[in-house]
Amino acid sequence: MNITTSQPSEDRKRHGEHILIHMTYIAKNVDLDSGIELTRALEYWRRYFEENDIVSALVISEGYFVQSFQGTRPAINTALEKILDQHSTIVHNIVNIEEIESRQWNGFLVKHLTSSVEDEEHALKNFSAGSDYNPYLMKSSQIESFLKAVFENAESN
């Protein structure tokens, strides 16, 4: 019996590869320092996302991560499982997951917010729920707006 795979596009649709997913999560960094370990982790994820056709926007500030990534449904599911498995000591909170028509970001974008006036304006004045930056106190709409504001010049639209 000869089994052919003459319908690869049908097989792909069967697993959801034709559906793009946008997922945003927040996390508190408790297991990586801010130096070489964090740099290695970021490089690992940059390569992983590139190999799996996932785009990402990540903001790091005061030990918090706010990350949005976009890719096919199976790729996002696999990446999320891998993130949760490899960084099990970090408390992750998914704040948004939705199907999208096109990718918003281009590549693997990282912004490390500092105490500069511009960064403080993004983090505190426009999007924080209190006087200190804490994404756990922000609503999902605030988090999405925050990411958009931080990366407004890097969008691929």
TrEMBL record:
Recorded hits in Pfam families, A to Z, give: BLUF (PF04940)
Look up the domain of life of the source.
Answer: Bacteria
Origin organism is Psychrobacter nivimaris
- GO MF term (any one): blue light photoreceptor activity
- Protein name as catalogued: BLUF domain-containing protein
Q: Which residues form the signal peptide?
A: none
Which PROSITE patterns does the UniProt entry name for this protein? BLUF
Q: Which residues form the BLUF domain?
A: 20-111
